[in-house]
Amino acid sequence: xxxxxxxxWWRRFFESTASLELSFFPGDEETDLQVTGLQQLxxxxxxxxxxxxxxxxxxxxxxxxxxxxCLTGLDASEMMLDFAQALLDDCGAPASLTRGDxxxxxxxxxxxxxxxNLFNSFGYFLDDGANVRVLQEMARVLKPGGRLFLDTxxxxxxxxxxxxxxxxxxxxxxxxxxxxRYDRGTRRMTSRWSLAxxxxxxxxxxxxxxxxxxxxxxxxxxxxxxxxxxxxTYGGDSFDGHHRQLLYVARKTG
Length: 254
Ligand SMILES: C[S@@+](CC[C@H](N)C(=O)[O-])C[C@H]1O[C@@H](n2cnc3c(N)ncnc32)[C@H](O)[C@@H]1O
Hints:
Blueprint: H1 9-13, H2 18-22, H3 28-41, E1 49-53, H4 59-66, E2 70-75, H5 78-91, E3 96-99, E4 112-117, H6 128-141, E5 142-153, H7 155-158, E6 164-169, E7 175-183, E8 188-195, E9 198-209, H8 213-222, E10 225-231, E11 245-252
Parallel strand pairs: 1-2, 1-4, 2-3, 4-5
Antiparallel strand pairs: 5-11, 6-7, 7-8, 8-9, 10-11
Helix pairs in contact: 3-4, 4-5
Bound molecules: S-adenosylmethionine.
S-adenosylmethionine binds next to loops.
């Protein structure tokens, strides 16, 4: 277990408006393409009950609900859910939002046909076992044969550039420095943003467990998933090890 990062970094980070800027969420055009990709790669049907686990401010959820799919979004962050609700209100699309922890999903067994976990929302726990339990929870709330779409960072790509350091100017005009490093022992990428003129003053931190395909495959098998496809892009390009993201599509066995 990594000791130099606070256990609940992600709870604080995603309650802060800074996370909206520092997470580099894909914009509208890319999100539209991602939603089209989800529909195709998961062969979504209008009957599917879809859970967006760690839905954030709802950029996928709102678009899918707007197209008539039946959506439930879950996130731990009140701030993110408030933004998601505002987007839903704006477009008049129905979807249910729940505040909760992916470690202990507040849904009955077999509630959903599809579970989504998108854009680097997996691997936040400093305990590897807890990250695996998130997979187990997603398996539990899926019906037998239900599909999972996990979009996570590809370890092989991410570690090519680590460690690195780059200046960041926020929309409020604050000059920060982002320092990222990868720990081969814990297999975690830690990002710290500090004030440019006071490098010891850390204002935000994040720490994500990175997975390579072999390890993810093993974990998926162990948690009761059968692989349907592995992609490097939402356009359906096969994952070749060098893509930034690892998109894993699986079906719950049994
Ligand atoms: C990088 S954002 C991605 C949001 C969204 N999936 C997207 O693609 O825009 C990660 C989100 O996961 C949520 N999250 C992370 N771990 C969680 C957990 N254990 N339970 C509930 N939400 C969690 C955070 O609050 C945050 O909103």
